[in-house]
Amino acid sequence: MQLTGNSQIRTIVVLQIGASLILGLGLLYFGKNAALSGFIGAFIAATANGYFAFRSFVHYRAQQPEKIAGRLFGAEIQKMVMTGILFGLTIVNFDSVNIGLLLGCYLIVQVAVPLIVLIYQDRQHS
Fold first, then answer.
1. Which DSSP state fits 98?
2. Does the pLDDT value for residue 19 go beyond 80?
3. From the CA atom positions of the chain, what is the Rg in Å?
4. Which UniProt keywords are listed (predicted)?
5. Domains: count for the chain
6. Which of 117, 124, 97 is nearest to 35 (CA)?
7. Quick check: is 125 in a domain?
8. How many whole angstroms separate alpha carbon 72 and alpha carbon 70?
9. I want to staple 101 with a disulfide (CB 3.0 to 4.6 A). Which of 18, 37, 49, 126 is the partner?
10. Residue 41 forms part of a structural domain
């Protein structure tokens, strides 16, 4: 299965949302607080990346390559602001949030899913 363009972007975002659910369910073993903290952190990563993908590639026109750099830069800034706001709202609104799990699950979803897709693609090409 070779993923290209919007198909690859959609697949990565869907996998990140799935990973968020799996991390949240897996952390239920350690209690509701741990599960909620992990799920929220993972879901922040998936949501911010989905927003970035939407802003960057939905209206992309191959005839306008000079505009893509500005669109990517703007979308990345908006993603970082959105991520900061979501983390801030989470910390302010949930008294018993586990910061380690919140940030750890964010990092796992941010890094692991695209890495898995790259490894899968490399195996398909070899």
1. -
2. yes
3. 16
4. Cell membrane, Membrane, Transmembrane, Transmembrane helix
5. 1
6. 97
7. no
8. 5
9. 37
10. yes
Give the C-alpha separation, 19 to 87, whole Å: 18
The token pair at 111 is 């890094």
d(CA 19, CA 113): 8
For 55-75, what is each residue's pLDDT tens digit?
877 666 666 667 777 888 888
Tokens representing 47 are 């949501």
Looking at per-residue pLDDT, the higher value among 61 and 29 belongs to 29
Alpha helices (H) along 27-98:
32-57, 68-93
Residues in the chain, overall count: 126
User: 21 in a domain, yes or no?
Assistant: yes
Residue 14 has a pLDDT of 86
> Where in the sequence is the domain holding 106, given as residue range(s)?
5-119
Q: Are 1 and 20 in contact (CB under 8 A)?
A: no
Do residues 15 and 42 touch, judged by C-beta distance below 8 A? no
